[in-house]
Amino acid sequence: MAGLATGIGSIIAFFTRNTNTRFLSLALGFSAGVMIYVSFVEILVKARESLIEPLGPAAGSWVTVAAFFGGIGLIALIDFLIPGEDNPHEVRLVEDLQLAMSRQSDAATQDGSLAENGHPEEQANKARLKRVGLFTALAIAIHNFPEGLVTFTMALTEPATGVAIAIAVAIHNIPEGIAVAVPIYYATGDRKKALGYSFLSGLTEPVGALVGYFLLKPFLGPQMLGVVFAGVAGIMVYICLDELLPAAERYGEHHLCMYGLVAGMAVIAVSLLLLL
Q1: pLDDT value at residue 135
Q2: Domain containing residue 29
Q3: Could you read off the pLDDT of 223-274 as tens digits, one per residue?
């Protein structure tokens, strides 16, 4: 469900006329609050406890810290390997898609065919936009592998926390769906392609969960779970600081982002207390 939220983003782009930037800013800040709080207060603490028991306080703490920064290093490496121009976190607005649809319609009226419209320069721009859309979809698909592992690991061990993480990841995936749909539609004029690529980019999230599970399954004892938990916490913190909060700032006002952040922390904190 969290992975399919990229498709929800593209559907929103096609069926609404304006981007509710204030809502997106609050929602992304909220997701960041949930994930940061859970990472430091819940996941990292459990990881340390799991590792201290077999390894002792000193060694267990060192391994926890190493795994935490290892998770950060993994997702940072993925970011580094993706070209900057194809950044999957480029902010796109619904208005961009509406403009694209209007231009495609005008071009079809003038030329009688979307496939034959435009000068060579316009055709080159469309080719470039299609490349941007495809690479954005690919970049999001790659990003979703570790996110799938994050969601799956938490749901497997702590179902209630897993639900909260899944919701946070789903919210964070919605703008990514818009980011895929806009350039693909600009380039092709094809709604089905734009929606299809958007959905496909999110489907790697459950694939990432399954691949991660089967790779780790033979080693999935208490110590390995501790290492995975700490790595997952690192991945989530990096996603929040590198993706969610900057996107929330770009979509709306600084204070809306902060209000969402604090609200997310408060909601997950109370939820965890109610589970005690």
Answers
A1: 66
A2: 5-274
A3: 888 898 899 899 889 988 987 888 788 776 778 889 989 998 998 888 878 8
What one-character-per-residue DSSP string does the chain give? -TTTHHHHHHHHHHH-SS--HHHHHHHHHHHHHHHHHIIIIIIHHHHHHHHHHHH-HHHHHHHHHHHHHHHHHHHHHHHHHS-GGG-TT----HHHHHHHHHHHHHHHHHHS-STT-S-HHHHHHHHHHHHHHHHHHHHHHHHHHHHHHHHHHHHHH-HHHHHHHHHHHHHHHHHHHHHHHHHHHHHH--HHHHHHHHHHHHHHHHHHHHHHHHHHGGG-SHHHHHHHHHHHHHHHHHHIIIIIHHHHHHHS-HHHHHHHHHHHHHHHHHHHHHT-
d(CA 48, CA 61): 6
The mean pLDDT of 169-174, rounded to a whole number, is 79
What's the start-to-end Cα distance of the chain, in Å? Answer: 27
Q: Is 120 exposed, middle or buried (0-12, 13-18, 19+ CB in 10 A)?
A: exposed
Say whether pTM exceeds 0.85: no
Count up the domains in the chain and report the number: 1
